[in-house]
Description:
Helix content is 75%, strand content 0%. It is an all-alpha fold. The chain has one domain (3-217).
Amino acid sequence: MPTNDLRALALWMAVVPLVTFNVSYLIAVAYEHVPACIPYLSGCTSVSSTGRMLPESLVFKAGMLSTVVVVALLWHRSANFLRSAGQAPLGVNLLRVLGMLAATSLMLYAVILGGKGDELRLLRRIGIDGFALSNLLIQITFIVLYRPMRITATQKLFRWLVVICIALPLLGVAAEVAKAVGMPRRATNNAVAWNAFVVVSAYYAVVARIWWHHGISGGRPTSPSE
Length: 226
């Protein structure tokens, strides 16, 4: 399977969700649905708040629901590539299952967002938490599966994958420390969520670059000795 396709899918995951959140936020600010600030620093509003009301919800849902398809395709096709490189079926099948879980969770979150009632809030929380957890497991699984496939051009990129993967839980730790020393709980959680999506986008950008290097061989796995 051509790695150009994998690169395009990974680039979508690196760019489109982040652009969606920021464009939705700017529209929400323009309509005075959320306060104007730098949410990455102040946490004045949540990511979800940028997709609850019209018209920004149209942009938000369009970006998220299209990303549902992309995340499922990316990890399914990445699993196919890794399998063709000799990775064990158990590992690549786990990557496929996690990709579907991430896509399903994101779809649940996007569809439910904006609905009112305790039941819908619970479903929304299940969706976003499910996506966050499955995405982290995907990152770890891909690191494990890709490690023996590294080529000279992707050695540093592989190390970046590891660093970025570690950065996500560290954000959570930093949030708990900040709240322990008196920072507002909601604002801290909001700021961490905004920055977590930047970290996730960076991971997918590195994955796209990795597939770009493998694309020189038209998608054929390249051994480190070549």
